[in-house]
Amino acid sequence: MSHTIKDKQKLLNRVRRIRGQLDSIERALEEEKGCMEILHQITSCRGAMNGLLATVLEDHIRTHLIDAPHDSTEHHEDHTDAREQLIDVVRSYLK
Questions:
Q1: Per the structure, how many domains does the chain have?
Q2: CA–CA gap between residue 70 and residue 55 (Å, rounded)
Q3: Is the pLDDT of residue 74 over 60?
Q4: Do 63 and 78 touch, CB atoms closer than 8 A?
Q5: For the domain that residue 32 is a member of, what is the CATH number?
Q6: Are 73 and 39 in contact (CB under 8 A)?
Q7: Higher pLDDT, 29 or 88
Q8: Which domain holds residue 72?
Q9: Which of 72, 70, 25 is nearest to 46 (CA)?
Q10: For 8-59, what is each residue's pLDDT tens digit?
Q11: CA 47 to CA 29: how far, in whole Å?
Q12: What confidence score (pLDDT) does residue 63 get?
């Protein structure tokens, strides 16, 4: 079972809150709100996205890298794949 399925409702709730924050940014832009208000909304949304990423990434590390079985060749390949996937995610985030 994927760790995202285990925490599905919690993650979906976070995504829905982020969607609400994005809608709020869109409304602020449409209503020509001040720059500072829009910047605060954007940084709040970015913080929420970072929090979501951190949660999923931490669970990924714990599930697929730290707690992953180490006894067979197949699991070793999965472990290596998980590491490469993690590196790809971190690289894309840092771009």
A1: 1
A2: 24
A3: no
A4: no
A5: 1.20.58.1000
A6: no
A7: 29
A8: 3-94
A9: 25
A10: 999 999 999 999 999 999 999 999 999 999 999 999 999 999 999 988 888 8
A11: 19
A12: 80
Which residue type, as a one-letter code, is found at position 29? Answer: L
Whole-angstrom distance, CA of residue 12 vs CA of residue 74: 32
Per the listing, tokens 């707690």 go with: 67
pLDDT band for position 90 (cuts 50, 70, 90): confident
pTM of the entire structure? 0.73
Residue whose C-alpha is closest to residue 47's, from 36, 39, 37, 35: 39
Measured CA to CA in angstroms, residue 31 lies from 22, 38, 41, 46, 63 at distances of 14, 11, 14, 21, 44
The terminus-to-terminus CA distance of the chain in angstroms comes to: 31
Token pair for 89: 């995610």
Read off the amino acid at residue 2: S
Tokens of 74: 């197949």
Backbone phi, psi, residue 83, to 5°: -65, -45
Pure H helices in 1-95: 3-6, 8-30, 35-60, 73-94
